Amino acid sequence: MAQGDTVVLGTRKGVIVLGRAKDGRWRIERDAHLGAVVPYAAVDPRDGALWVGIEHGHWGTKIQRSRDMGKTWEELPAPQYPEGAEIKPGKPAKLKYPWVIAFGAASQKGRIYLGTVPGGLFVSDDHGASWAINEALWNRPQRFDSWFGGGFDDPGVHSVLVDPRNPKRWIVGVSVAGVYETTDDGKSWTIRNTGLRADYMPDPNVAEGHDPHLVASNQAQPDTLWQQNHCGIFMTEDGGKQWRSVEEKSGPAKFGFAVAVDEKDARTAWVVPAIADECRVAVDKAMCVCRTEDGGKSWKALRKGLPQEACYDVTFRHALDVCGDRLMFGTTTGNLYVSDDRGDSWTNLGSGFPPVYSVRFVRAG
What we know:
This protein is mainly beta. Helix content is 2%, strand content 39%. β1 (6-11) and β2 (14-20) form a beta hairpin. The longest helix is centred in the middle third of the chain and has 4 residues, at 135-138. The two termini are 14 Å apart.
C-alpha cells in the first residue's frame, strides 16, 4: 500500500480502518471498540502500531494499542494525575478525556505523548507501559487563573508537535490557554501567544487565555505553524514568536476547528469553515473547504462534490488530514469526504458513519 492508501478514524462509536483498493475504491477493512467514544486514533510511523484513546464514560479512559492494524488489541495503563493534583483549588484533577496522541522522533523509540482534559500533558518513554505528567506545564501558576474550559468544563491539551530537527522542542496547544513551546524536553515552557486575539476576554491581548482549536505544521518547515483560533485563523513563520491574522474579511474562511498543512509547502493550508459560537454549522448551510497557497493572503472556497444546501455539518479539530495531494475529512453527522486533487473536487465515501472525531492517514517512518 502506498502512503495515504490507509486511514484510521476515531469516532463516536469506535475506531474504523479504511483502505483504498487498486480499483480506487475505499472500503472498511475493520472496526473495533464499537460503541465506545474514540476521540483520537493514529498509527505510529516508527513501528506501525495503531494507538487509540477511549473515553468509556462509565469505565473511564482507556488506552489501547494494536500491532496488526486492529485485528488484536492490548490495553495499556491509563495515565493518572498525581495524588493531590487540583484543576482549581478544591477541585481534584482526574483524567477525563484522551484528546490527542503524538509520537516522538525516530531516535526516541519509546516516546509517546498524550494530551488530556483537564489540561495535563503526559509523556511515556517505554511505549506506554508507564506515564508521567509534564510537571513544568502542569505546575504553571497561571494555570489556576488563566486556563479554563471552552467546549469542555476544564482546559485540555489537544495539539502536540515535535520538531523533527530537535526532538527536545515541542509545541503544545491548549484550549483555553494558548500555545506553549519547550526547547529543553519539557523542563521549561515559553508562552507563544503574541499576535493572537481573545475577543471574548476583557483584554483581547491577554498573555494566556487564548483558544487555539488546533495547532498544525509540517515536517519540512516546522517553524511555520497554523491554527484555527476561536477568533480567526492565524499563522506564524518564526515558530510562534509572532502570529498574524490571516482569516478572510468577507469570505467563509474565518472560524472553524480543523486545519491541515501541505507536507512540502507550509504556506499552503486547508480549513473547513463553520459559523461560530451559537450555530456551529456550515457557513450558509453549504459545505466548503478553503485553501490558501500564499500563507493566508488569499483563500479559495472549494465546493465541487460537497453539499451546497441544507447542510448542518461541522468538522472537528482532528477530523481533517492531508497526505500528498489527497485530503480526507469527516463530520459530526457521519459524512466522510476524500479528494485526490488537493481539494479541488470531493467524493462522499458514506453518510452513515458515526460522528467523526479524528481522521489520520497512515504514514511510514
